[in-house]
């Protein structure tokens, strides 16, 4: 484990105190000789080296959670690598967007989804196919439960993303899916549950056949309807 005495924090007058500490922590985490589980110095040492108060230091440490782990009565430690902090930050940022940004978000989703469908047709395993089949079946069995069907719609696309083995797809689209959940309710609530399940079946069929072109076409057709209802929602904002 890294010795705290070898870690030195230096003050920088060009950025805010909290950002300064966060920057130093980030740099420390990225060092080649630092590994998950490495301890940061005690709070009093970091506060003295950075010439900040413990209040400021603790704000920065909270901001850095995900990069570090904080447990009561223990020093902060370097966390295992995770994409969750980035996903959480994207979620917060996206939720602050306005009408025009919302429409742009839908467009970005469409661009990504058609490429995901192509990749899934090449890479999806039997476990992914079975899981997607189950989400479709559950939607069909519970057509009267709108909230349930929205969750299963999101789950279908989540499994499709994961089947590509490209983790960045999930980082980008998981927060977008949360933001667009309301528009998905409007899409499915307008007699669209059957249309959605049919679209999912077309996509899944192409994935089973390992046909990227067919998968892309099926997803693009699906996204046209999604985009239409999302625009209706945006106009009502």
How many runs of DSSP E, i.e. beta strands? 2
First and last CA, distance:
53 Å
The CATH level-2 architecture of the largest domain is identified as Up-down Bundle
Structural class: mainly alpha
Overall mean pLDDT = 82
What is the strand content? under 5%
- For the CA atoms, what is the radius of gyration? 23 Å
Strand order of the largest sheet: 1-2
CATH superfamily of the largest domain: GntR ligand-binding domain-like
Structural domain count: 2
CATH class of the largest domain: Mainly Alpha
Low-pLDDT runs of 5+ residues are none
- Helical run tally: 11
Reading the helices and strands in chain order gives HHHEEHHHHHHHH
CATH topology of the largest domain: Four Helix Bundle (Hemerythrin (Met), subunit A)
Helix fraction bin: 55-70%
Largest β-sheet summary: 2 strands, antiparallel
C-alpha geometry: elongated
Write a compact overview of the structure shown.
This protein has helices spanning 17-29, 43-50, 54-63, 84-95, 99-123, 126-141, 146-163, 167-179, 181-189, 193-208, 212-236, and strands at 68-69, 77-78. It has 237 residues and is mainly α.
